[in-house]
Amino acid sequence: MADFPPSELGDYALIEVLHETEDTLTFVAKQRTIDRTVALVLLKPHRCADPAAVATFQEDVKAKARVTHPRIAAVFESSEQDGHVFYTREMVAGQDIVSLRAQGNRYEMTMVWDLLKAVCDSFLYYEKNQLGYRAFQAEGLVLIHEEPYLANLATSDLTEASAFGDSLVAIRESFWRLFRAEDTHLPDVRQFFARMDPNHKHVFKDWQELLRACNVAAQVTSTETPEVQTGPALKAASGLAQVETKEMRELSLAATQAKSRLLGVLIMLLLALAVGIGWWWLHSRQPLTPAANPMVNIPGGGFVFGKGETRELDDFVLSQYEITIAQYAKFLAELKGTSVYNHVNQPKQKKGHQPKDWSNFYAAALARGIYKGQAIDINCPIVGVDWWDAYAYARWRGGRLPTEEEWERAARGIKGFDFPWGADPDPIKSNTGGDYDPNPGAGGEDDGFSAWGSVDQLGDDISPEGLIGMGGNVSEWTATLEADPNEPGAVTAVVKGASFMTKEIVDLTHRSMHSLSKASMSRGFRIAADAVR
Q: What is the largest CA-CA distance in the chain?
């Protein structure tokens, strides 16, 4: 064999080394007769001496030559000159994402999702055309004017199609670093990349599933990181608690003033009533002080998730109780028609965040009265809200909805209890539906509540971290979104926890999926936030 590496091979002048592997050298080369710049891939001498290696190389080139995808580098020809075995392919003149990352480049979410869709599309092309392929490599994804082009990974070995798992790991590592720092904190983004972990319970199984999830993620995220424009900013967990205390004082004062006016009128009308009746009214109908709802710190680290999986989380904070009617009323009062807290994908036909029949519902709660046959007060959890409402409230507070993982960590502790208090179900400790009866005055024989209960009256339903009501009362929205298996293109949210209507025994691993626009009188939410380090 002539000197290696050569300076020319037939019609090709070799200009510079572009890339090197154990078996090959890739050059920038010029095809002189047509003045075309190409990439020339040359088999190294020690491999040329092995007939089996040469045969494999040439079979792989044949497989690559079958690829006619607009975003995958095309093969031009395969040849042998003076004992050198090589092929030429399209020269893609751009920067690969490894180089771009090293330069500190970060991209808006829309572009990152588009890049990932292009990767999925290329590998689905291989599978559709029954081509084997090697695992994704970040160096093989090149951007030209922000348009993606990919290395030709086709191979003659069809068993290489099992490279999906290795590709998933490589994509997780490389794509995560393409996001802007503020976007990596979004629950939708974190949940998506968590499913690329081979140890994840719901790890992506194939390219089609990954592409579908990518489309969903692109729908529910924005190219702009949400900003809380006028709401209380989250500076610390204690900051949320301070804001909450101020809100509660204001609401308590307003409720007291309203009740005082009503009391004066009623006293004038009922002067003739017996002193005993007056005493009962004054004491049993006093305005209820809204319950404080502090943010509880949940330490990060390892914990048991699902049916025995080990997961890791950073520190975060979560509201001790479900968000109450009093808290949500404050939110509605301050909205004043603004939409700044809406999710970017909230349906245009949805106007505002006031639950159905709000005026009657709230009036009954203020009066500690009856709503649809059930006792209610302002310390009961807000219900009848859809996912968009819960999202907007959390954003107004400067927080967010908890992910499914965070919800379980807070409810189950690090050991992964089946129920907040331990391993065994106890219908007395949590407000669940074994004793539910929709008829007025009926039900509640086991836990004391037929329907929703005041959040601060559920003290036996307490998690290892001190959170109340995670075993029952109302089920709760989370930030975790997944594709709807029954409706292509639709998105559903994971809902956690039992409610006062749940008649069967369900542990804390139970999850259900619901449309983002579906409200229920047995479903509410809590809010979370990243812990301040």
A: 119
Residue with tokens 């003076």: 82
Least confidently predicted of 238-247, 385-394, 465-474: 238-247
How far is the C-alpha of 478 from the C-alpha of 527, rounded, in Å?
9
Q: Are 243 and 397 in contact (CB under 8 A)?
A: yes
Residue 249 has pLDDT above 70, yes or no: no
Pick from 207-216, 270-279, 382-391: least confident: 270-279
Residue 222: per-residue pLDDT: 52
- Provide Rg for the chain, Cα atoms: 31
Q: For 341, list phi and psi in degrees, rounded to 5.
A: -95, 0
Distance CA 504, CA 31 (A): 73
pLDDT of the residue at 168: 92
Q: Is the separation of the CB atoms in 420 and 345 below 8 Å?
A: no
Q: Of 391, 401, 380, which Cα lies nearest the Cα of 500?
A: 380
Q: What is residue 524's predicted lDDT score, i.e. its pLDDT?
A: 97
Calculate helix-pair angle for 164-176, 109-128, nearest 10 degrees.
170
**Cβ proximity of 156 and 59 under 8 Å:** yes
Most confidently modeled range among 95-104, 481-490, 491-500: 491-500
User: In what side-by-side order are the strands of the sheet with 316-319?
Assistant: 295-298, 316-319, 528-530
Cis peptide before 5 (omega within 30 of 0): yes
Q: What is the DSSP letter of 292?
A: P
Do you find a cis peptide bond into 347, omega within 30 degrees of 0? no
Q: Can you give 361-398 as a three-state secondary structure string?
A: HHHHHHCCCEECCEECCCCCECCCCCHHHHHHHHHHCC
Higher pLDDT, 49 or 287: 49
pLDDT-based confidence at 328, cuts 50/70/90? very high
Other C-beta atoms closer than 10 Å to the C-beta of 317 total: 26
How far apart are the C-alpha atoms of 205 and 218, rounded to whole Å?
19
Helix (H) or strand (E) holding 128: helix 109-128
> Residue 202 carries which DSSP code?
T
* Beta carbons of 510 and 408 less than 8 angstroms apart: no
CA angle 83, 88, 89 (to 5 degrees): 160
Give the helix/strand (H/E) hosting 8: strand 8-9
**Model confidence pLDDT, tens digit, residues 146-189:** 889 999 999 987 665 458 889 999 999 899 889 887 777 676 78
Q: Spell out the residues 6+ positions from residue 436 whose beta carbon is closer than 8 angstroms to its own.
A: 443, 450, 451, 500, 501, 503
- Alpha helices, DSSP H, located in 140-234: 164-176, 187-194, 207-220
Quote the tokens at residue 339: 């939409």
Q: What is the DSSP letter of 469?
A: S
